[in-house]
Amino acid sequence: MQAWKDYQEKNKDRFLNELIALLRIPSVSARSEHKPDMLACAEAVKDALIRAGVDKTEIFATEGHPIVYGEKIIDPKKPTVLVYGHYDVQPPDPLELWHSGPFDPVIQDGKVYARGSADDKGQVFMHIAAFQTMVQTNTLTCNVKFIIEGEEEIGSPNLGKFVKGHTDLLHADVILISDTSMLSLETPSIDVGLRGLSYIEVEVTGPNRDLHSGVYGGAVANPITILAQMIASLHDSNNHITIPGFYKDVQELSKEERAELAKAPFNEQEYKKDLGIKELWGEAGYSTNERTGIRPTLEVNGIWGGYTGEGAKTVLPSKAYAKISCRLVPNQTSASITELVINHLKKIAPSYVSVEAHEHHGGDPYVTPIDSIPFKAASKAMETTFGKVPIPMRGGGSIPITALFEKSLGVKVVMLGFGLDSDNLHSPNEKYDLANFYKGIETIPYFHKYFAEMHGKG
Ligand code: BES
Ligand code: MN
Ligand code: MN
Q1: Do 374 and 352 fall into the same domain?
Q2: Residues 62 and 161 both lie in one domain
Q3: What is the number of structural domains in the chain?
Q4: Stated pTM of the model
Q5: Directed axis angle between helix 35-52 and helix 12-23, to 10°?
Q6: In the structure, which protein residues have their CB atom closer than 6 angstroms to any atom of ligand 1?
Q7: Residue to mutate (ligand 1; options 289, 399, 427; most atoms within 8 A of CB)
Q8: Run means of pLDDT, 10 residues per run, the chain, 458 residues
Q9: What are φ and ψ of residue 371, in 5° steps?
Q10: Which residue out of 18, 37, 71, 88 is catalytically annotated?
Q11: How far is the CA of 236 from the centre of ligand 2 (A)?
């Protein structure tokens, strides 16, 4: 559409400047000292929605960080697209590894560097800019609703309740999310799957106090050693998870489905080189893309205990801790895997120690069927602006609310992500390529157009 192109070309710099203003707000959801920034960021998102042309908007307070809502209903008989995204970001540390301040956006080599640039403010803003494009050119084909939350990076602890309590407000025909990656601008792809998550913290207690490791060492079990042994026992020599029942509900893909997914290009040499590793690791019998896409995993995210400060201290610690998370695939559920893992850890604990474990947060896996209208509309939109049919892929990450959206609102979720795996999400020097940003803004109006055309005809 020429009118879209013209409008976007004229407003290119303004779109970028508005994104930069959002990126300057340190909306770190995990840190309580950023509470005022969270509210400021919610206000900024709301203002951006108003400038873009919504006719109703509201900030909903939650027990945690606020949720921003906005809508423009052009005709109740037309289909409604609900856009979800998040304005919160991960903590920026370690700060010393950033080349510029995480909240001082810098443009270099056609990329904007800042925490949240790709995950997810840059991708949320594409929707705001695309929406404004359609409003200003009088070409909206669907009603549009926005729900932009501030707690995705901490597991969306309050969004589920909000969604369940506002099903009328959020009523829509499709949920559209841009918070994932694609292969590259040359090889577009769509994540049709996201893994679920079970996140657990374990506490292993040995003696009732820290002990002199010379006086007691050799006679009393060291909880760090025991925890390390317990953790090591969770994978076998095939890197298969050993917890009985862990794979019970895992949906096995057919040969044909696996062959389809194997069409995604993958360069093992480059992958290893990029990560600085000599050999890949993983579950026997599965390719790298399968290991991160269709197979569940168990990872230790952190382990600590005893003395870790400067110098040395000869201590036999009383306690050891670990944070452990599992990525889940259809038809596993977060609740059942969390219970399974906690019970297993307690069961394998030797009698020298006691083990406590609790859940942090979780979410169920999600798959968008490739024969669904939302997927077809997304695929056609990308094909229009990239000149190539996008490859459907399974993404390894999680967006905890997706499965609950479908359950509560009764409609499909489709991921139309424009990030790259190399964007340094959650890492120092997070960036978003401006080419991807503008391609997203260009593509999204086509999604609305094709969705409106296909809706009700499937
Ligand atoms: N946007 C990511 C998820 C993602 C990234 C999916 C890239 C696919 C490709 C999201 O913000 C995220 O980081 N999710 C967390 C889950 C959360 C509970 C902390 C994750 O996957 O670890
Ligand atoms: Mn995200
Ligand atoms: Mn994230």
Answers
A1: no
A2: yes
A3: 2
A4: 0.95
A5: 160
A6: 119-120, 152-153, 155, 179-181, 191, 194, 197, 361, 395, 397-400, 425
A7: 399
A8: 97 98 98 98 98 98 98 98 98 97 98 98 98 98 98 96 98 98 96 97 98 98 98 98 98 92 93 95 97 97 97 98 98 98 98 97 95 98 98 95 97 98 96 98 98 88
A9: -95, 10
A10: 88
A11: 32
